Amino acid sequence: MPAYRQGAAPTKPGYKLSSNENPFGPLPSVLEALQRRADINRYAAAAMPELRQSIGERFGFTAAEAADHVHLAAGSVAILYQLVHAAAGAGDTYLHAWPSFEAYPALGIASGAEAIRVPLTERAEHDLEAMADALTPNTRVILLCSPNNPTGPAIRRTDFDRFMERVSTDTLVVLDEAYREFVTDPGAVRGEDVLRQHANLVVLRTFSKAYGLAGLRVGYGVGHPRILAAAASVAIPLSVTGLAETAARASLMPQAQTESAERIAQLIERRETLMSELRGIGLDIPDAEGNFVWVPERAERDARDARGGVHRGVRSAEALAAAFSEAGTLVRPFPGLGVRISVGEAESIPVAVGIVRLHVQSG
Ligand SMILES: *Cc1c(COP(=O)(O)O)cnc(C)c1O
To answer: Which residue in 13, 76, 250, 357 has the most C-beta neighbors within 10 A?
Structure first.
């Protein structure tokens, strides 16, 4: 099996736009809270009731309900593994769109479950009709990524509702909303709005992206207690550290919320600039609802137009990523598919646009 490969670290001074990280440093209030927590000679108490409560409240759960409707883990990627392991073994399958989050294809390897990929639509969105058509009695888990990493579009609420009508209530549906805080489309699905209607739905969120705590490893799932208990039964105990708990709690305090909302607004503004500048070059950039923008490789049928100077996509994802790397900036290539550019520092936006423009114009 191919091992997980992390986005490369920069070797020259430049920008790291390869892992959808938050370019802002930690919030001062979060750093202060971390500095006050010194009891790292002790195991953290795993229950973490205050953190579960403040997460649960956002989904309309009482403090008592939050205890078993919220599941914490060392990153939401850990919960993806737990859910697939708990629900799907040898002879079972799980379904996901492609291209989507790079961790999905490998989630079933250890348990023996087979991953079934359903290609995105031409607009780089989940093809929910095709996904529903692909369901079989062996499908145990469906992974939906909204907004979709790496292509950007969010799943629409109406499409989600129609899809759920076709899914059996004993098939687990995971709505992976790692980038929900960046979504601006009012028609997009939102975990809080749909969770209560579906006992077979788990919503995943993380502190890694919008909250800028990627290095501390803390994410969560919200859903039915029996499903979350199954996830917990295959989890490695005590993986969420006390420091991660402290940082996550501090991030949900009102002051920190105001400050991070301001940062998120800035990142959204940069995303819109990056998207419209790249569209201005003529590229077919899908709607970006996360903190990243997708530059597609051009389809065969567009090659002729490209010779005439019309560029809907780039010739080669790998060649574009190499051009970025030459310039000291890192992006994430998906060979044969496209390149994902994370929204980083303000100064990185014109740099990224410049590199893409030069690359497209030189063939
Ligand atoms: C980054 C990401 C995650 C997981 O992030 P964690 O750091 O493990 O919380 C999950 N899903 C998607 C789609 C992501 O891009």
So the answer is: 76
Q: What is the CA radius of gyration of the chain?
A: 21
Q: Which of 37-46, 163-172, 176-185, 189-198 is least confident? A: 37-46
Q: Choose one of 55, 76, 292 to mutate for the ligand 1 pocket test, by most ligand atoms within 8 angstroms of C-beta.
A: 76
The binding-site residues of ligand 1, defined as CB within 6 angstroms of any ligand atom, are 20, 75-77, 101, 145, 149, 176, 178, 206, 208-209, 214, 219
Q: Is the pTM of this model over 0.90?
A: yes
Which whole-number Å values give the CA distances from 328 to 11, 12, 17, 294, in the listed order? 7, 5, 11, 19
pLDDT digits (tens, 9 = 90+) for 299-316: 776 766 766 767 789 999
Determine contact, residues 264/210, Cβ cutoff 8 Å. yes
Per DSSP, the residues of 295-316 read EEBPPGGGHHHHHTT--SSBS-
Residue pair 274/345 in contact (Cβ under 8 Å)? The answer is no
Q: List C-alpha distances in Å: 155 to 20, 114, 151, 208.
A: 19, 24, 12, 21
